[in-house]
Design a protein that fits this description.
single chain; mainly alpha; elongated
């Protein structure tokens, strides 16, 4: 039972982090957070499209990892269910 809980937690964590990393670099929150670094070259670098795209790409990889974890989790839970009786099998 704990391993199923951990697997479900991994699916949730990877999906939540993936959505966060995919969306935040293109939101107003990113601009507000990088405004602190405006006078330095770091601020310009953080506001560049390359860095935003790179972080969004990491979010897409997290979503892909969540999808793989969810697929494995669902396959494992399908194996726990009893098989349906086929035709001609005793009931």
């Amino acid at each position: 039972m704990p391993s199923r809980f951990i697997a479900a937690f991994y699916v949730y964590a990877f999906a939540a982090l993936g959505v966060l990393l995919l969306a935040v670099p293109w939101s107003a929150a990113w601009d507000a957070a990088t405004a602190v670094y405006m006078p330095t070259p770091v601020g310009a670098w953080l506001r560049s499209g390359f860095v935003r795209g790179f972080i969004s790409g990491l979010g897409a990889l997290d979503l892909f990892a969540a999808w793989g974890q969810a697929r494995d989790f669902l396959r494992a839970t399908d194996g726990d269910a009893p098989a349906a009786p086929g035709p001609g099998s005793p009931r």
